[in-house]
Specification:
single chain, 164 residues, alpha+beta, Rossmann fold, 3-stranded antiparallel sheet, 5 helices, ABCF_ATPase, nucleotide-binding, ATP hydrolysis activity
């Protein structure tokens, strides 16, 4: 079933022609990629298809009940972190708790009997809170989100600001 058809689409910005006679067909279950050098008109084409930008010539045919959205590649997120680091940053409070637990563990290893009981109570409370807030599974959740977004096996060293 055809879910999108673009015929003879053209777009110019002033005297600069960006798109000329573009033809595109997308059927259900198709997976497509729009690839080209910077300035080739990829984002312009997507904005036109999503109804965010006008065009001079051509037709866009899609079912009336089809909902389309467009997420701008310049979303304002200019992070120097990698994608995984950015996703993990949501759980900074858990990392802080984990670090605090490690510190208490070190203190317990060297504490005398008087101090040990107090440290164990603090550690027990902190460990329970850590568990209740997902401390033992947050890294698996991040991997699951990356996989769900199509970033499974993605190069972990690529920074968010370098993604397009």
């Amino acid at each position: 079933m055809m879910i999108l058809q673009v015929n003879q689409l053209s777009k110019s910005f002033g005297a600069d022609t960006i798109l000329t006679n573009i033809k595109l067909e997308v059927r259900s279950r198709d997976r497509i990629a729009i690839v080209g050098r910077n300035g080739a008109g990829k984002s312009t084409l997507l904005k036109i298809i999503a109804g965010k930008l006008s065009y001079e010539k051509g037709d866009i045919i899609k079912p009336k009940d089809l909902t389309m959205g467009y997420l701008d590649q310049h979303s304002g997120l200019d992070s120097k972190l990698t994608l995984k680091e950015e996703l993990l940053s949501v759980f900074d409070f858990l990392k802080k708790m984990e670090k605090e637990m490690r510190t208490i563990e070190e203190k317990m290893a060297q504490a005398g009997p008087d101090m040990l009981e107090s440290l164990m109570k603090t550690y027990d409370r902190l460990q329970q809170e850590f568990k209740d807030k997902g401390g033992y599974q947050y890294e698996a959740e991040v991997r699951s989100v990356m996989h769900g977004l199509g970033f499974a096996g993605f190069d972990d060293s690529v920074r968010v600001q370098d993604l397009s």
